[in-house]
Amino acid sequence: MNPHFVPYAYGDRADITIIDLDHTLPMLRRAAKVVRAVTAQGGTVVFVGTRPDLRPVVRKAAERVGPRSYHVGERWLPGTLTNKIQVLSHDPYSDERVVPDLIVFLNPTHNFPALRECAQQHVPTIGVIDSNVDPRVVMYPIPANDESTRTAELIAGVLSVAGREGVALAQ
User: Fold this and answer.
1) pLDDT digit string (tens) for 107-163?
2) Domain containing 36 — which CATH number?
3) Domain ranges, residue 141
4) Number of neighbours of residue 70 by Cβ within 10 angstroms
5) Which band of pLDDT confidence, cut at 50, 70 and 90, is reported for residue 67?
6) How many angstroms separate the CA atoms of 64 and 132, rounded?
7) Would you say residue 7 lies in a domain?
8) What value does the mean pLDDT take over residues 74-102?
9) Does the residue 11 lie in any domain?
10) What string of H, E and C letters represents the secondary structure of 118-171?
11) Overall number of domains in the chain
């Protein structure tokens, strides 16, 4: 267990860390408020889940939020945020904003290069943080099991519904 995860752990049993759901629920609510606020202001949200079982989850979450939401289900291409001119073939003189306003990571352990780029570009991040991950790697951690597809579906569902509510508020 990561030493910084200790406040979110209920205890250990048979060398398995039990996550305290009394911490998970308020942090999930806070993350939902952030997603709602970003989409209410017309911001873009990107859902990232790069395991094969998470691809349909992130696709459905992005579809649920609407046209200002995107998903990354394959591998995060390094330089997507920090070297966007070469990666995206983007004209640097264009007025279009390419950097998203918020990124939600369903499996942050496999996406440390993306987390590093988000920190460099000052993009807020939400992440499902398991006991083996430092919760400080994302701005808004949600302590939960990041290996469970069901957990990812639940969290992505709550966050995408909050995003859809934000879009409705904006209209």
Assistant:
1) 988 899 999 999 999 999 999 998 888 889 999 999 988 888 999 999 999 999 999
2) 3.40.50.10490
3) 21-88+98-170
4) 16
5) confident
6) 30
7) no
8) 70
9) no
10) HHHHCCCEEEEECCCCCHHHCCEEEECCCCCHHHHHHHHHHHHHHHHHHHHHHC
11) 1
Quick one: what percent of the chain has pLDDT higher than 90? 54
pTM of the model: 0.88
Residue 10 lies in a domain: no
66 phi and psi, to 5 degrees?
A: 130, -160
Burial of 28 (0-12, 13-18, 19+ CB in 10 A): buried
First-residue to last-residue Cα distance in the chain = 44
Judge whether 127 and 103 are in contact, CB under 8 Å: no
pLDDT digits (tens, 9 = 90+) for 136-147: 999 999 998 888
Q: Is 93 contained in some domain?
A: no
Bridge partner residues of 47 (DSSP): 71, 104
User: What single-letter DSSP state applies at residue 6?
Assistant: G
Sequence-ordered list of residues with C-beta below 8 angstroms from that of 14, at least 6 positions apart, any chain: none
